[in-house]
TrEMBL record:
It comes from the Eukaryota. The gene is LOC113712048. Keywords: NADP, Oxidoreductase. GO terms for molecular function: NADPH binding; oxidoreductase activity, acting on NAD(P)H. SUPFAM superfamilies: GroES-like, NAD(P)-binding Rossmann-fold domains. The keyword ATP-binding does not apply. This is Uncharacterized protein isoform X2. The lineage of its organism: Eukaryota, Viridiplantae, Streptophyta, Embryophyta, Tracheophyta. The keyword Zinc does not apply. Residues 10-323 form the Enoyl reductase (ER) domain. InterPro entries: ADH-like_C (IPR013149), ADH-like_N (IPR013154), ER (IPR020843), GroES-like_sf (IPR011032), NAD(P)-bd_dom_sf (IPR036291), Quinone_OxRdtase_PIG3 (IPR014189). It comes from Coffea arabica. Coiled coil: none annotated. Signal peptide: none annotated.
Length: 335
């Protein structure tokens, strides 16, 4: 089969599309013929050598969609021919990938392969943040950073589907405009405005119930000021790798707030299975028949993985970047 590989860590140009060995199917796995694969920041960090590849599969790609073409001896949940999406331990940047069947989900009705491939990683973080660790309800207030990105845009859509009031931040006017198309109640350029002041003004000083943060140290104090009493700051990413942050303890203690991080790569098999069951129970019903909730910025063929990574590195994308295993596909930017 063909796969996107790299012989040494470095910039996007180290990626190559070449023939590799077919995956070996374990007894509890299914073999998926990949139709699309989502591009994530983790792919870039591993390629650069910044982030360790924790999976047994040596190829990039941590979410995909496609069709089950073979099953291991103990895999019986979904039949051959099922159209699925999956959370992976790597391997999505290839024509075929072997996946434990517990990590495979049927595609919500109405979604394309491209949209389905954009969901597993984002939905995992969103379910953990909004459902498992927060239990958000109608009229709760949520502050979502990086709201124009792959995770952030879906988070805004899900929060609005739950009836929440959404404050969305982005780092350019173009991305702020995009956040408005997501139906965010308030769209803020965090590089030009103090978003904590906007939150205080629009909530009459009560703050938000939850902050979903992928920015990190630069905005910690503003995040804590934005939280309501009992609110939660949930960190799902960062701009600078493992940079130290200082915390104003007064804001943390006086409002009984909680700071937590989420890294699904630390989850064991049971925790991942329970998470994916929760996603299908709580998020899938919101997505079924609503393809407009999944925003695809651009599609590239696997042979154009260099261009896809370059686009993400420049932070120019709005929504998700998706790779397709076709060498004949012209690059397509979607509005």
């Amino acid at each position: 089969m063909f796969a996107v590989v790299y012989d040494s860590c470095g910039g996007p140009k180290v990626l190559k599309w070449k023939v590799v060995e077919n995956p070996v199917l374990d007894f509890n796995e299914v073999l998926i013929k990949v139709e699309a694969c989502g591009v994530n920041r983790r792919d870039l960090w591993i390629r650069e050598g910044i982030y360790q590849h924790l999976g047994k599969n040596k190829y990039l790609g941590f979410e995909c969609s496609g069709t089950i073409v073979k099953r291991g001896a103990a895999a019986s949940k979904l039949p051959i021919g099922s159209k699925v999406c999956a959370l992976l331990n790597g391997g999505g940047y290839a024509e075929y990938v072997a996946v434990p069947e517990d990590y495979v989900m049927s595609i919500p009705s109405g979604l394309t392969f491209e949209q389905a491939a954009a969901i597993p990683c984002s939905a995992s973080l969103i379910w953990l943040s909004f459902f498992e660790r927060n239990n958000l309800i109608r009229d709760d207030k949520v502050l979502i950073h990086g709201a124009a990105g792959g995770v952030g845009s879906l988070a805004v859509r899900i929060a609005k589907s739950l009836g929440c009031v959404v404050f969305a931040t982005a780092g350019s006017e173009e991305k702020v405009d995009f956040c408005r198309t997501l139906d965010a109640d308030f769209a803020i350029n965090y590089k030009k405005q103090d978003f904590s002041e906007v939150v205080a003004r629009e909530t009459n000083g009560t703050g938000v119930n939850c902050v979903l943060d992928c920015l990190g140290d630069d905005v910690v104090d503003q995040n804590l000021k934005s939280l309501a009493v009992g609110g939660k700051l949930i960190c799902i990413g960062y701009k600078d790798h493992w940079k130290w942050s200082s915390v104003e303890m007064k804001d943390l203690v006086s409002k009984d707030t909680t700071i937590m991080g989420i890294n699904i790569n630390t989850f064991n098999v049971v925790e991942k299975r329970n998470m994916l069951e929760g996603i299908q129970r709580d998020i899938w019903p919101l997505l079924k028949g609503n393809p407009h909730l999944v925003d695809i910025c651009a599609t590239y063929s696997f042979a154009q993985a260099t261009q896809a990574h370059t686009l993400m590195e420049k932070n120019l994308h709005r929504g998700k970047i998706v790779l397709l295993p076709r060498t004949d596909l012209p690059h397509t930017d979607l509005p």
